[in-house]
Structure formats: structure tokens, C-alpha cells
Amino acid sequence: MQRAYIGRFAPSPSGPLHFGSLVAALGSYLDARHHGGHWLLRMEDIDPPRERPGAARDILRTLERFGFEWDGEVLYQSRRDGAYREQLERLLRHHHAFACRCSRREVAAAAHIGTEGPVYPGTCRRDPPQPRPGLAVRLCSDHPEAVAFHDRVCGPVAQWIARDIGDFVIRRVDGIFAYQLAVVVDDAGQGVNQVVRGADLLLSTPRQILLQRLLGLPTPRYAHLPLVLGEDGRKLSKQSAARPVRPERPLEALLAAYRFLGQRFPDTAQPATPEEFWPLALEQWEIARVPVSGIN
Description:
The protein is an alpha/beta fold.
């Protein structure tokens, strides 16, 4: 029996909703609703130093102004420490993770460069200290096989984590749980089985699949949408002062995001209002038309 589609949108409240985030929200929403599925909303407010006061509230208001409707209550990662701690302790107990005292400088000096920077050389894995506050925790990546999956937009993806990434951090030195662990625990906890998100997270997906396997959690299907780039060729982000979308002109932004995702309306069915946009967009949605993003 086929499981009901459960998707989600998970912004971080580090600033107002910008066009790149709108693209991710729209793609995930249309794919979920087109398949008669649920669309959940999760606020990834796990990293207080990066958050902006009031940003979570502003994002929710903007989504409402644009006509998004989510199922159930919003999940806040800041209230989920107990769930993350439980799974972290499980990984430590089964020797899938270890405490690490190495500084960034020490790692950089001893490592080779991989896909996303220095690859941890395994220093503390050989003789790990006892976990305690002030130490990071890393996941063991010494698995002989590549982690592979088929992305609904980008096609086949494979990554040798030990070679390309190394033992990656799942709890930081400051005690904050890393995104890779939190997203895996939350997707499983919410029953998410379809993840539609930006292609900046494509290379993170094999790490998340590895965590899912070690924790005995299900792996969703993934689809990674093209990135919106600024004039400098870099991904738009709240940190790079990307301009927020204008809630007073929702149709203009929705149409731009829809076109960016490779979707088109027939000449005989052009929406003139946001209320007309949504049923037409849902009817016409085809993820096969979404362009593949280049990953820098």
C-alpha cells in the first residue's frame, strides 16, 4: 500500500523570506498538493546566533499573505533538544560517533581538501576522549561504500563520505546540534517521506541518508530545486542581504517563482489574481519541467 505524501518547508529565521526561499516553498508546496499530500512547516531555529528577532513570525505572515496553507502546527527545532540528544546518545552508545577535541586549525593542518573543505583526518576517532561539554561530536564516516540515491530533479547522486567529507560534526563545540542530525530526526519524527528543497543541500543528502541508516530511520525521496543566484553568481541568502519578497504584491512574486521552476501556464489560462494562481498552478505542475541546478 502506497504511503500518503508528506512534504515540508523548513526555513531558518535568520531574516525575512526572500525570493530564493519563496522558490523552495512554492516547489515543495505544489508538489505536495499536486499529489494530494500534506505540507508541513518547520522553523529551523536551532542556531540562535544566526537568528533575527521576529523573523519567524514575519516568515509565517508572508507565507499566509501569499496563500500558503500548511497542515498542523508549526514545528520549532528550538523545542526539540531532547529528541536530538536521545539520538546522539544512541550513536555514541553504538560507537557510530565519537567526541572530538580537535580545533579547526588542527584539522586544517592535517587534512586534505574534499568536497566541502578540509576532510577530518580521524585523529580522535582512534582514541576518543569522553564526551563532555566543550567537545564536538562527530559521526564515523569510515564506510567502504558510496552513499547513492536518485534525485527526482538532479538524477543519480553518489558520494564517498569518508573520502569527500570525512567524520562530520553532529554536535558543535558550543553544544548546538548540527543541522545534519536535526533534519534527519525531525523528518522522521514528522513522518516526512518527500523532501523538496534547494540544491544547496544536494551534497548534504548522502550524510543524512547515512545517519538515517545508522539510526534505523526511513529515507525520504528527494528533489533538489535550482538555486536563485545573485549578481555575483552566489546563492541568495538572508546573510547576503537578499531582498525580501513584497507581501503587498504576491502575484508578481508567485509568477516569477513559478517561471523560475520551469513551469508555464497556457495562453488561455493566465491567472490575474493570487486566488486564480493557486488552482491553475497546482493543475499544471510537473516536476519533470524543473531545471537542474549547477552546484558550485
